[in-house]
Specification:
Helix content: 55-70%
Low-confidence stretches: 5-19
Distance between the termini: 41 Å
Radius of gyration: 22 Å
Shape: globular
Order of helices and strands: EHHHHEEHHHEEHHHHHHEEHHHH
Number of helices: 17
Number of domains: 2
Bound molecules: NADPH dihydro-nicotinamide-adenine-dinucleotide phosphate
Strand content: 5-15%
Structural class: mainly alpha
Length: 424
């Protein structure tokens, strides 16, 4: 994997605070998030696995229920990450040159995510068939695995912090740098750590957990319920799509603009696998009744969301990488920027500036609704995801306004809606 410096690399990776408005409230906000987010994942685990999805008061009794880290959980975590690293290194892949990133560098990535997912699922099926792993054991280990992964993300972030060789030792800068990261895309040899952890470790880990939860339900009740089939099916579609269009990840904000620090380390090791699989975890115990009509409506909602999500992301990706491609049967319209690049103003990108977020939110809603309306906790994914994408859109908007200046103003005038065409 090689790197091509397109413009002089910026020093802003190490000192983001100097050039950009501090995200998340700066060091204080970072400290709060680094405390509250892990606590929240533990709370959600206790709600689902100890109280059937009910919201309970966070009191001493709840504290006593919280899981403890264990050596066997550490073994599973290290084994999982090691297995994904091995697949990353040994499976054949194709080299793909990404976009110019925040530091002015164009990096080449070796993509083999789909093969890796298939091998992982085959290994999972073999392990379940051979009795090496099974759903009930996964449910039993899940709490320990969660707290062990949280501790691992704190430790791993120390390594990530040291990657960027930060110059400032002021406490606020250290905390903020630890949280937001000091290096954009740290690599060890050929392995891009951010890509490995986001795609193979987090995305595949999420699907593996969801499948194990379905197996746990099967072991408990002798069948896999319709809501569980829907949730695991929807999330399998999302995961397969992610790997099928793996190169589209190289035009995302995470890869090109976000440094790799605690925020992303925690997201990939903890948040994505454990909180994205909350619905399937909940369905191990709950049995919401879904009519055929309701199931059909959820399938349609998920597919419509998927279509918007996928087609909008592909439109932008193809516009950037294959400029001749038509959009909705026409030559794409665009705004030529003074920087030399173009802003797409056709297809979904003419209806709202982030229609791709709308598609994602529709799918999220379908996954949550499959769990019925008895408890709020299975809706957690949608409830946090909607404000997250609203905030992300605003941060991206500020970033683009700084980057493109008057050209971005012209784009905003032409496409006034942020996420939902004609509404928001
Ligand atoms: P985008 O893929 O929308 O990327 C935003 C970047 O695209 C901008 O910074 C800008 O980068 C470029 N851009 C914006 N508008 C235009 C335009 N009109 N024409 C050309 N380029 C444009 O954002 P994300 O990376 O946030 O999202 C990608 C997908 O990932 C989305 O579908 C989102 O829903 C999903 N996602 C999922 C999450 C999850 O937890 N499941 C979390 C976050 C995102 P530049 O100036 O460099 O070209």
């Amino acid at each position: 994997m090689s790197e091509i410096a397109v413009t002089a690399p910026s020093t802003s990776d190490a000192q983001p605070a100097e050039q950009e408005k501090l995200a998340f409230g700066g060091p204080v906000g970072a400290l709060v998030m680094m405390t509250l987010l892990p606590a929240l994942t533990l709370y959600l685990w206790a709600s689902v696995h100890r109280h059937g999805g009910a919201l309970v008061l966070p009191n001493a009794a709840l504290l006593a229920e919280l899981p403890r880290p264990s050596l066997s959980a550490l073994g599973w975590l290290v084994g999982w990450c090691g297995f994904q690293l091995l697949l990353d290194v040994v499976l054949p892949g194709r080299d793909y040159v990404g976009l110019v990133q925040k530091d002015g560098v164009r990096r080449t990535y070796r993509l083999n995510g789909l093969a890796s997912l298939l091998v992982t699922l085959a290994a999972l099926a073999g392990s379940i068939a051979g009795g090496v792993v099974h759903g009930a054991a996964a449910v039993e280990q899940l709490g320990s695995l969660l707290i062990t992964s949280i501790l691992a993300s704190y430790l791993f972030s120390v390594l990530l912090y040291l990657f960027g060789k930060p110059a400032s030792t002021r406490a606020g800068d250290v905390i903020y740098g630890y949280f937001m990261g000091t290096a954009l895309n740290p690599r060890v040899g050929r392995v891009d750590l951010k890509m490995l952890m986001e795609s193979k470790v987090a995305m595949s880990g999420w699907l593996v957990l969801a499948i194990l939860m379905a197996h746990a339900e099967y072991e408990r009740t002798g069948a896999v319920s319709l809501p569980m089939m829907l949730v695991v099916g929807f999330q399998a579609l999302y995961t397969f799509d992610f790997f099928w269009f793996e190169e589209a990840m190289l035009s995302t904000w995470d890869i090109n603009n976000e440094n790799y620090g605690f925020m992303l380390a925690f997201a990939f090791l903890v948040w994505m696998p454990f909180s994205f699989s909350l619905q399937s975890q909940y369905l191990v115990y709950a049995d919401p009744q879904l009519s055929g009509a309701a199931a059909l409506a959820l399938i349609l909602l998920n597919l419509a969301g998927y279509y918007i999500f996928r087609s909008s992301n592909l439109q932008k990706h193809r516009f950037k990488t294959q400029p001749g491609s038509k959009i909705w049967g026409r030559e794409p319209e665009f705004i030529q920027t003074a920087r030399g690049t173009k802003l797409l103003a056709s297809g979904w990108w003419s209806l709202a500036r982030h229609s791709n977020y709308l598609g994602d939110l529709m799918m999220a809603l379908a996954w949550c609704l499959a769990c019925g309306l008895t408890h709020l906790v299975p809706f957690f994914y949608f409830l946090y995801f909607a404000p997250l994408l609203v905030d992300r859109e605003r941060r991206d908007d500020q970033h683009c306004a700084r980057k493109y200046g008057a050209d971005w103003d012209r784009y905003r005038e032409r496409v006034p809606y942020r996420i939902v065409p004609f509404i928001y």
